[in-house]
Write a structure and sequence with these properties.
Helix content is about 65%, strand content about 0%. By secondary structure, the chain is mostly helical. The protein has a two-stranded antiparallel sheet. The protein is globular, with a radius of gyration of 22 Å.
Amino acid sequence: MQYSVIQRILGLLLMLFSFTQLFPMIVGWIYDDLDLLPFLKSFFMLLIGGAMIWFPVRSASSELRLRDGFLVVILFWGVLGVSGALPLILSSRLELSITDAVFESISALTTTGATVITKLEGLPYSILFYRQQLQWLGGMGIIVLAVAILPILGVGGSQLFRAETPGPIKDSKLTPRIKETAKLLWFIYFGFTVACAVSYKIAGMNWFDAVGHSFSTVAIGGFSTHDESIGYFKNHAIEGVAIVFMLLSSANFSLHFLVWRKKDLRLYLKDSELRFFLYCVLVVSLICCLYLYLSHQFSTLSQTVYVSLFQAVSMITTTGFSTSDYTYWPVFVPALLIFSSFMGGCAGSTAGGMKVVRVLLLLKQGMREILKLIHPSARISVKLNRKPVPDNVMQAVWGFFSVYIGVFVLFMLLIMASGINQVTAFSAVAATLNNLGPGLDGVAQNYASINDFAKWVLCLSMLLGRLEIFTLLVVMTPVFWRQ
């Protein structure tokens, strides 16, 4: 393990992150916000802290190995989660405990959207913008951004990229050079953000809300500048914009690049994962609409359709926006929506969950086992996009699924052991491990009421979900630390 190189990279990344504290200050200055001192203090603390970590090993230079990349990613997300909480702790307007501030910061950076803050309309513009900005940075992963920038400083990025990106696309490159791949991903990500912000403005938001919500929409985060989320605006055009960009951001960004490069929209329909994802969105939306209509939750059919479609898309994509308090709906619908978040979005997207491709492969594997019972001698392969899936990939998918279930059960038991009821514990773990945000019962609106132990467990759950479990668990094994 090359600890000096790891220390150097961590210092550089922390100094890089310190400059993100300046943007909320600019926003606060524009809106005559006087609560700027916490961000100024945080900027200098992070810049000086990063410099102190970097300076003693500034001359360390060596090619990163894969294990080093895993450790850098884990350390940085942990340090970043704590560092991002600094202005929230220092702000006199919030009065958050350290636990609550770290929870809010990790929730934002992992694009979970679980919050402990209420009465958002009364907060300074700088704080509101900062929460949205953290989600935007976490959406594609600040490590991927660093991969594009750090080579300029003499730090290679291939191992960081492999440790950071979701499992099914770890070894796929859009370009021969990993730096160019990261830049392309961020180009698409930034383009979606600009288009989303402009669309929100045209639909009826002011510029502050439009930019803030574009950050959390494209990042599939779900934070809002209002307590009522998207429902605050009571505007179907705004809801329509949100639906479009939630779906776009839940598709594989590599697929977006291929469509853009080849100028062929038919590539979207040829992708097995995206087709299956859209089918699932349609089915869940229809079920919700039918159930709500038959139970007379809303006065008109059109309102039922609007609300059902928006909430289904929001939950499946693990965004967590809302236009209506779904916890008051017949219990079947909220439960269905929570379970739908387990699937999440496509691999290579900003969405959470297990990822659509894994669910699709598990279903195909199940069908193959059924067919083999009927035809024991037949050689049946699992195919994705008309190509056979190697057995080692299927083993990895099954391994991920089993570990995912094990982690979910363990965390749910830990939360229940702290004195929280079963429904709250189940939905809280589901919402954090899937990076969804809102849950049921005690965590339907926010997470302020749960105890500190549960919040720390859920912070770990959010990090596990963001790094797709194995990236974090691998550093906990004795084999990882052996020379």
